[in-house]
């Protein structure tokens, strides 16, 4: 099954043990660098099809998916590519950490227009901060956020933070699935 293969690939390519400082500032004895899977050819194919299927099972009908650069970018692009083969198409966008000071000065770039119904995507949810920031940027530019899809949930409070902001959350894997002894 594709889900089992994605979890195996994440375990093989993305999980490390040691002493790490996470983006949230927390320390951890394990780290999930999902980019080593989300930017891998097989990982992109799996994430695209599984992510698109999860979004559709949830009944969400976004015109685009995207999130805070850099972690969300390959996830969004993989889902957009998968939708090309199984219409209707879902395009991609990216949320900059800060609006550009030149050009159009946008913070949300790509296939996004005010009023668009979108799904915010993320590679790994820890505190939920990156997905919340992306959702707030999308809302500030007139978008409607249907929910959040993450490749991995570290199960460290991020889901609760997102749900407290009114966002439904879907995940393709949980940390327990990837750590030693995980299913």
Fraction in beta strands: 25-35%
Bulk shape? globular
Helix proportion: 25-40%
Overall number of strands:
8
Biggest β-sheet: count, sense, barrel?
Answer: 6 strands, mixed
How many distinct domains?
1
Radius of gyration: 16 Å
Per CATH, the class reads: Alpha Beta
Provide the succession of SSEs: HEEHHEHEEEHEHEH
What does this structure look like?
The protein is an alpha/beta fold and 183 residues long. It has one domain: Rossmann fold, CATH 3.40.50. It is built from 7 helices and 8 strands. It has helices at residues 2-14, 35-38, 41-57, 73-85, 129-140, 158-164, 175-178, and strands at 15-21, 27-32, 64-68, 91-95, 108-110, 117-125, 144-153, 169-174. The strands form 2 sheets. The protein has a 6-stranded mixed beta sheet with strand order 5-4-3-6-7-8, with helices on both faces.
């Amino acid at each position: 099954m594709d889900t089992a293969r994605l979890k195996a690939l994440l375990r093989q390519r993305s999980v490390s043990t040691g002493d790490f400082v996470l983006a949230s500032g927390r320390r951890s004895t394990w780290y999930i660098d999902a980019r080593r899977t989300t930017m891998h050819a097989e990982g992109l194919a799996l994430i695209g099809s599984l992510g698109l299927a999860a979004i559709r099972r949830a009944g969400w009908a976004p015109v685009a998916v995207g999130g805070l650069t850099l972690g969300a970018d390959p996830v969004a692009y993989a889902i957009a590519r998968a939708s090309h083969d199984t219409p209707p198409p879902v395009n991609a966008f990216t949320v900059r950490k800060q609006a550009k000071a030149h050009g159009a000065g946008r913070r949300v770039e790509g296939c996004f227009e005010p009023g668009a119904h979108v799904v915010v995507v993320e590679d790994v949810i820890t505190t939920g901060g990156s997905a919340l920031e992306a959702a707030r940027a999308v809302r500030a530019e007139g978008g409607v956020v249907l929910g959040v899809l993450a490749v991995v949930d570290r199960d460290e409070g991020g889901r609760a933070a997102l749900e407290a902001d009114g966002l439904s959350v879907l995940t393709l894997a949980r940390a327990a699935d990837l750590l030693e002894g995980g299913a």
